[in-house]
C-alpha cells in the first residue's frame, strides 16, 4: 500500500484531518461550478460572434444600397436627353460645345440641390479638360448651397487619377474609390469618388465624376445596429489605414488626412491585422482582448453590375466591427466570482469545523512544538506548561530541564561577550577617527589619489578625482585602471605596471585635449605599496599641472621674443646709419661721369643690394618697435578683396587659380585695416612662393580663400606675441588668448596646394628669424601672429608635406551691450 507519510512528510495530523474535511466538502462544488462557468463563457462568445457577423453583413448591405442610389443618380444624368446628345455629338461644327452643356449644367445643379450628399458633380471631356463643375459653396455648413463654377475657374489639365480609374473597365461602368479633394487653398474634403465613362460615336467622349461627402457615406454605415453592446466600427483600407473609426471621428474633414497617425497595424498584433487585411470574411476571438468580425466592404456579392470596386490602382476597403471581450464576458465573470465566493465560504466552514474537531488532541502537541521553538531561539528562561499526565507531559518536563542547563551556560557567555564588545567599540572609534582625519587631508589636497589593488583594479579615490577626470567613484570602483586612463581600453605604456615591474615610483606628464577646457597637462605618479617586501597595492597621484606648463611655455616664448626684439633693435640702429652713408656714397659715384659703363653696372648691383639690406633693416625696426594699432570699423571681405588685388600680378605670372568663397553679411569688426591687410598679403605671398618652390608637385596650382562665420566646437588657446601694442607703441605684458568653446568668430581661411611644411618645421614657423627661404628674414609669420594677437585673435596652421598648407585666422565677435 502507498504510505502518504512518505509522499507528504510535511503534513501534520491536524493538516491531514483538515484536508480530508475540505476535500469532501469542496471538490464536488468545484467540478460542477467549473463546468457551468466554461459553458456560459462559450455561449456568450458564440452569441457575440453571431451578432458582430450580422452587423458586418448589415454594414455591407447599407454600403451597397448607398452605392446603388448614387449609381442610379449617375444613370439618370447619363440618360438625360442633353447628356445623350452631347455624348454622341461631342463638338459642334464651329468647334465649340453645343447648347447641350448648358442644359446638362442645369440638370447637375438641380440634382445637387435635391440631394445634398454630393460635394461636387463634374463633367470632363476625353482630353481631361473640365467642362462643368457643380460644387458645394460651404462644405462645413449644415445647409448645403451649390454653385455652378464659372468657366474661368475650370481646370484645363488632364485628370490622370480619374482616367486611370476607368482605364481597365468598359464604357458606362461606374468605378469608385476614396479620395481627398482640395477646397480652396488650405482645406481638403474627404469624398467617395464615383467615375462613369461616357461612350460617344468615336469611343470615349468624356467622364462624369460624382464626389460624395465621405461623412454622408459613413453616417449611413453608422446607423443603428442590432448588436446591443455598442461595438466599435471601422473601415480599413488595404494598406491598414483607417478610412473611418467610430472612436476617432472627432473631425470629419480629417478622416483621410489623419491616416498616417491612425493605423490598424499599430492597434492590433501582426497576425490579427494580417487576417483582417487578407480579403476574406471571418471572426477573431483570441489574441487582442476583443471579439472581431470582418469582411470586404465592396465584395462581389453586395454590388450591382453597374458598380465596380476600384482595386487596380487603389487598396480595397474592409468593414471591421469589434467589441471588448470584457463587455461580453462580464456576466460570465460575475457568475464565476459568485461561484468562487460560495466556494470560499464552504471551504472556510469546512476548515472551521475541522479545527474544532481536532483541537482537543492537537492542542497539547502545538504547545509542545511552540515551546520548543522558543527555547531553540535562545529564550532559555521559557518553561513549557503542558498538563496531560501522559507521554507528552513527560517530554515537556525533559525540555524544561534542558532549558535550565542552557540558561546557566548562556549567562557565562554573555559576560565574556560584553567585555569583548567594549574593547571592539573603543578600537573602532579610534580607527574611524584616524580614517576621518586621513580622508579629510586627502580630500583637501588638489591632487587626486587613486588606490589600486595588486590586480590594478581601482579600490578608492579622493575627492579631487572627480574634478580632474569628470568621473565619480561609483562609476570606476572595481574597474581596471587601463579602462579609465587608456584611450583604447588598455594602457599602451601603463605607468602603474611599470612601477610594479621596477619596484619603484614612476612618473610622467601627459598632454590631453579636453573639449571643454582645451589642451591640458596631467602629471601622474605611480607608487608601489609594499607589505613584507611584497607589493599589495599601488597608489597613483594625479595632478593637473596645466597652469605650470603654460607658465613654462610662456616664459620660454617671452624670452625668445625679448631676445629677438633686442637683437633686432640693436642691428637696426647700428646698421641703419652706416647703410645710409654707404648708399649716398654709391649714388654719388654712380652719378659721376668719370666711371665707365661697366663700373656703373657694378654700382647698380651694389645699390640694389643696399636697398635689399634697407628693407631688412626696416623689417627689423618694425619687429622691434611695432606700429601702434589704430582700430576702426572694417569688413573682412573688403580687406581680403584688396589683398587679392595686391598679389594679382604674382598670381597671374605663376598661373595660379584663385578660388574665393565669401560669406555675405559678415559682422563689421574693430580692426587696424592696414595691418590686417599686410598680414593677409604676407600669407598669400607665402602660399604663392610655396607653389613656385616645387613646380609639378601638384597638377593644379590653387589658392582657396574662404571667409565665414563659425561657432567654435572646441576651446582654442594661444600665447600672445609677448607684448601688446599700445597707442604709443610701448609694449605691455599680454595674457594668454583663449577662445572658449561655443564662441562666435569671423574666420579667414587661406589654403594652397603647395609643397607643405615638415612637422619638425611647423612648430617653429612663428619663431622670429626662423626661415627656410634663401632670401627670407623669418619675420613675416611672426609679424602676422603679433598683428592677429593684438586684435584678440588666434592664427593656426595645418600642413602636410606634399599636400599643401591651410592658415586660419580667428577674430572673436564681441556682442554689443
Describe the overall structure.
This protein is an alpha+beta fold and 817 residues long. The protein folds into four domains: 52-328, PAS domain (Beta-Lactamase), CATH 3.30.450; 449-544, 2-Layer Sandwich (Beta-Lactamase), CATH 3.30.450.20; 551-623, Helix Hairpins; 629-812, Histidine kinase-like ATPase, C-terminal domain (Heat Shock Protein 90). The chain is 46% helix and 23% strand. The chain has 22 helices and 28 strands. The strands form seven sheets. It has a seven-stranded mixed β-sheet, with helices on both faces. A five-stranded antiparallel β-sheet has the order 8-7-12-10-9, with helices on both faces. Strands 14-13-17-16-15 form a five-stranded antiparallel β-sheet. A hairpin with a 4-residue loop joins strand 1 and strand 2 (130-136). Helix 2 runs antiparallel to helix 10 (330-376), helix 16 (546-591) packs antiparallel against helix 17 (597-624) and helix 18 (636-646) crosses helix 20 (673-693). The longest helix is centred in the N-terminal third of the chain and has 67 residues, at 13-79. The chain is flat, with a radius of gyration of 50 Å. The model is unreliable at 92-96, 300-314, 694-698 and 723-733 (pLDDT under 50).
Amino acid at each position: 500500500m502507498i504510505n502518504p507519510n512518505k509522499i507528504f512528510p510535511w503534513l501534520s495530523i491536524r493538516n491531514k484531518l483538515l484536508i480530508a474535511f475540505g476535500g469532501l466538502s469542496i471538490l464536488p462544488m468545484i467540478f460542477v461550478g467549473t463546468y457551468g462557468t466554461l459553458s456560459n463563457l462559450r455561449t456568450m462568445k458564440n452569441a457575440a460572434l453571431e451578432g458582430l457577423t450580422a452587423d458586418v453583413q448589415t454594414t455591407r448591405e447599407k454600403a451597397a444600397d448607398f452605392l446603388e442610389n448614387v449609381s442610379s443618380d449617375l444613370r439618370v444624368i447619363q440618360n438625360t436627353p442633353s447628356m445623350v446628345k452631347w455624348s454622341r455629338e461631342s463638338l459642334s461644327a464651329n468647334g465649340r460645345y453645343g447648347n447641350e452643356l448648358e442644359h446638362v449644367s442645369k440638370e447637375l445643379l438641380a440634382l445637387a440641390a435635391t440631394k445634398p450628399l454630393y460635394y461636387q458633380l463634374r463633367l470632363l471631356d476625353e482630353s481631361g479638360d473640365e467642362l462643368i463643375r457643380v460644387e458645394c459653396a460651404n462644405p462645413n455648413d449644415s445647409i448645403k448651397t451649390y454653385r455652378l463654377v464659372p468657366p474661368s475657374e475650370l481646370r484645363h489639365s488632364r485628370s490622370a487619377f480619374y482616367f486611370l480609374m476607368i482605364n481597365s473597365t468598359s464604357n458606362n461602368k461606374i468605378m469608385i474609390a476614396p479620395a481627398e479633394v482640395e477646397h480652396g487653398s488650405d482645406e481638403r474634403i474627404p469624398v467617395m469618388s464615383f467615375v462613369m465613362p461616357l461612350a460617344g460615336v468615336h469611343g470615349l467622349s468624356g467622364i462624369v465624376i460624382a464626389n460624395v461627402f465621405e461623412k454622408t457615406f459613413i453616417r449611413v454605415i453608422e446607423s443603428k445596429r442590432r448588436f446591443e453592446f455598442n461595438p466599435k466600427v471601422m473601415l480599413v483600407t488595404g494598406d491598414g489605414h483607417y478610412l473611418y473609426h467610430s472612436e476617432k471621428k472627432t473631425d470629419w474633414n480629417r478622416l483621410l488626412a489623419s491616416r498616417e497617425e491612425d493605423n490598424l497595424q499599430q492597434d492590433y498584433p501582426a497576425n490579427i491585422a494580417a487576417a483582417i487585411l487578407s480579403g476574406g470574411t471571418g471572426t477573431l476571438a483570441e489574441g487582442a482582448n476583443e471579439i472581431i468580425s470582418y469582411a470586404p466592404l465592396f465584395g462581389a456579392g453586395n454590388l450591382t453590375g453597374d458598380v465596380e470596386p476600384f482595386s487596380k490602382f487603389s487598396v480595397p476597403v474592409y468593414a471591421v466591427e469589434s467589441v471588448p471581450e470584457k463587455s461580453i464576458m462580464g456576466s460570465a465573470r460575475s457568475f464565476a466570482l459568485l461561484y468562487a465566493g460560495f466556494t470560499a465560504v464552504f471551504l472556510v466552514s469546512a476548515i472551521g469545523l475541522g479545527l474544532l474537531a481536532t483541537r482537543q488532541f492537537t492542542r497539547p502537541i502545538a504547545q509542545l512544538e511552540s515551546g520548543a521553538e522558543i527555547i531553540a531561539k535562545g529564550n532559555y528562561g521559557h518553561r513549557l506548561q503542558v498538563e496531560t499526565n501522559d507521554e507528552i507531559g513527560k517530554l515537556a518536563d525533559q525540555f524544561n530541564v534542558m532549558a535550565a542547563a542552557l540558561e546557566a551556560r548562556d549567562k557565562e557567555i554573555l559576560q565574556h561577550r560584553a567585555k569583548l564588545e567594549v574593547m571592539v567599540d573603543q578600537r573602532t572609534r579610534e580607527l574611524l577617527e584616524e580614517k576621518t582625519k586621513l580622508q579629510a587631508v586627502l580630500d583637501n589636497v588638489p591632487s587626486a589619489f587613486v588606490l589600486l589593488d595588486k590586480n590594478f583594479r581601482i579600490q578608492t579615490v579622493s575627492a579631487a578625482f572627480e574634478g580632474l577626470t569628470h568621473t565619480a567613484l561609483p562609476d570606476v570602483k572595481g574597474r581596471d585602471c587601463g579602462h579609465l586612463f587608456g584611450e583604447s581600453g588598455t594602457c599602451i605604456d601603463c605607468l602603474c605596471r611599470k612601477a610594479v615591474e621596477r619596484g619603484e615610483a614612476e612618473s610622467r606628464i601627459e598632454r590631453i585635449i579636453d573639449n571643454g577646457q582645451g589642451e591640458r597637462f596631467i602629471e601622474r605618479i605611480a607608487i608601489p605599496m609594499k607589505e613584507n617586501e611584497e607589493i599589495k597595492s599601488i597608489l597613483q597621484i594625479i595632478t593637473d599641472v596645466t597652469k605650470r606648463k603654460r607658465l613654462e611655455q610662456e616664459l620660454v616664448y617671452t624670452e625668445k621674443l625679448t631676445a629677438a626684439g633686442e637683437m633686432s633693435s640693436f642691428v637696426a640702429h647700428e646698421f641703419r646709419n652706416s647703410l645710409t652713408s654707404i648708399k649716398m656714397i654709391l649714388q654719388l659715384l654712380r652719378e659721376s661721369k668719370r666711371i665707365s659703363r661697366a663700373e656703373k653696372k657694378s654700382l647698380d648691383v651694389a645699390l640694389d643690394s643696399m636697398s635689399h639690406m634697407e628693407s631688412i633693416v626696416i623689417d627689423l625696426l618694425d619687429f622691434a618697435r611695432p606700429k601702434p594699432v589704430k582700430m576702426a570699423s572694417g569688413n573682412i571681405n573688403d580687406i581680403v578683396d584688396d589683398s587679392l588685388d595686391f598679389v594679382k600680378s604674382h598670381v597671374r605670372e605663376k598661373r595660379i587659380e584663385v578660388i574665393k568663397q565669401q560669406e555675405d553679411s559678415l559682422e563689421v569688426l574693430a580692426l587696424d585695416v592696414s595691418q590686417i591687410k599686410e598680414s593677409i598679403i604676407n600669407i598669400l605671398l607665402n602660399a604663392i612662393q610655396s607653389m613656385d618652390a616645387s613646380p609639378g608637385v601638384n597638377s593644379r596650382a590653387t589658392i582657396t580663400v574662404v571667409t565665414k562665420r563659425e561657432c567654435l566646437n572646441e576651446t582654442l588657446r594661444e600665447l600672445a606675441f609677448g607684448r601688446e601694442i599700445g597707442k604709443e607703441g610701448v609694449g605691455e605684458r599680454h595674457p594668454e588668448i583663449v577662445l572658449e568653446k561655443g564662441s562666435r568668430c569671423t574666420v579667414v581661411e587661406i589654403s594652397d596646394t603647395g609643397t607643405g611644411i615638415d612637422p619638425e618645421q611647423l612648430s617653429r614657423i612663428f619663431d622670429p628669424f626662423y626661415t627656410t627661404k634663401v632670401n627670407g628674414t623669418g619675420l613675416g609669420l611672426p609679424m602676422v601672429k603679433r598683428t592677429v594677437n593684438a586684435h584678440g585673435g588666434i592664427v593656426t596652421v595645418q600642413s602636410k608635406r606634399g599636400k599643401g598648407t591651410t592658415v586660419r585666422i580667428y577674430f572673436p565677435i564681441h556682442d554689443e551691450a
